[in-house]
UniProtKB/TrEMBL annotation:
Residues 9-122 form the PafC HTH domain. GO terms for cellular component: proteasome complex. Coiled coil: none annotated. Pfam families: HTH_PafC, WCX, WYL. This is Proteasome accessory factor C. Residues 240-311 form the WCX domain. Residues 144-208 form the WYL domain.
């Protein structure tokens, strides 16, 4: 068994430190250090690090706050870290299942690290890890293997492909160029004869495909994508969307590429490029009160029309019973 590193020990201590201090307001630093088996100096360094820890936003009300009065310390704002670092049975099982699924995902390059983490969690979970839960991804593996074999054959392919940004399924003929993995997803890069451009097709969005009796022949202008920064590279030709987001919607700035974030008190004004306004409409319609669309006007009008249609459905009579005369 490998020895724990000082950084790992410190991380575990920091995750437990806030709930420990919350339960002991005004505790002596020397007493807390003795309980945690560290020196007073180390504990004070841990407290200084906690000053700059907290939730995304990292402004007032987001960071952990505390009061140090001489040799006494009290947590005044916990930033949500109010529970000890312990997994309940449901959380432990969910983590085991997630790691097993990740280990079964084709093309993952960090399988050794995943298996080591899974072994540790299963050891800590005890009998719970023996629950009758098996995770297999045979469909993904089979599809990936078949696409790879088709690409290796050197022939052109006919694809039935789903495009979520437009919520449509299309048939197209492509000339395969290579297989690659980006951001945990497997892609087929090919020259699309319909679009007359190089395209990336996510394997799990290929509904069906067949080999053609003609060789794959990408034209000279079929240049591979630069995927070092990810698949999506927003450019000025794409629609620009402006959103006003509250705390519950700030995750958007971490999950999607954004061009600008302007903080206006508790709300942020966010601008981002999208591939298609139809995708933006479907995405934003389900975000709730934490996200408000500011522009462009076309997107606002789309969402207003969608909302009006939905309200109209609620107002309309349902079923034949509404048309029947009342019994007299």
């Amino acid at each position: 068994m490998s020895a724990r590193t000082p950084s790992a020990d410190r991380l575990g201590r920091l995750l437990n430190l806030v709930p420990y201090l919350l339960a002991r307001p005004g505790i002596l630093i020397s007493e807390a250090a003795a309980d945690l088996d560290v020196t007073d100096k180390q504990l004070r360094e841990d407290l200084e690090l906690l000053w700059v820890c907290g939730l995304p936003g990292y402004g007032p009300g987001d960071l952990i706050d505390m009061a140090i009065d001489g040799d006494h310390v009290t947590i005044s704002h916990d930033a949500g870290m109010d529970k000890p670092l312990r997994l309940n049975p449901d959380e432990a099982l969910a983590l085991v299942v997630a790691l097993r699924m990740l280990a079964e995902t084709p093309g993952i390059g960090t399988r050794d690290a995943i298996e080591r983490a899974l072994a540790k969690i299963e050891n800590a979970a005890g009998d719970l890890a023996d629950a009758p839960v098996a995770v297999k991804l045979p469909a993904n593996q089979e599809r990936l293997a078949k696409v790879r074999a088709a690409v290796a054959s050197g022939n052109a392919l006919r694809l039935t492909y789903y495009t979520p940004s437009r919520d449509e399924t299309t048939d197209r003929v492509v000339d395969p160029m290579r297989m690659l993995m980006v951001g945990g997803f497997n892609y087929l890069e090919a020259w699309c004869r319909r679009a007359e451009a190089t395209r990336l097709f996510r394997i799990d969005r290929i509904d069906a495909f067949s080999e053609l009796d003609e060789p794959s022949a990408p034209p000279v202008g079929a240049v591979p994508h630069d995927v070092t920064g990810g698949v999506f590279h927003p450019g000025p030709e794409l629609p620009l969307v402006t959103l006003r987001v509250g705390r519950g919607g700030r995750w958007i700035t971490e999950y999607y590429p954004v061009e600008q974030v302007v903080r206006e008190g508790p709300e942020w004004l966010v601008t981002m490029r999208v591939t298609d306004l139809g995708w933006a409409q479907r995405f934003l319609a389900g975000q709730g009160r934490d996200v408000t669309v500011v522009g462009p006007p076309e997107l606002l009008e789309r969402i207003r029309a969608q909302a009006a249609t939905a309200l109209g459905q609620y107002a309309a009579p349902h079923g034949l019973a509404a048309d029947r005369p009342a019994a007299g």
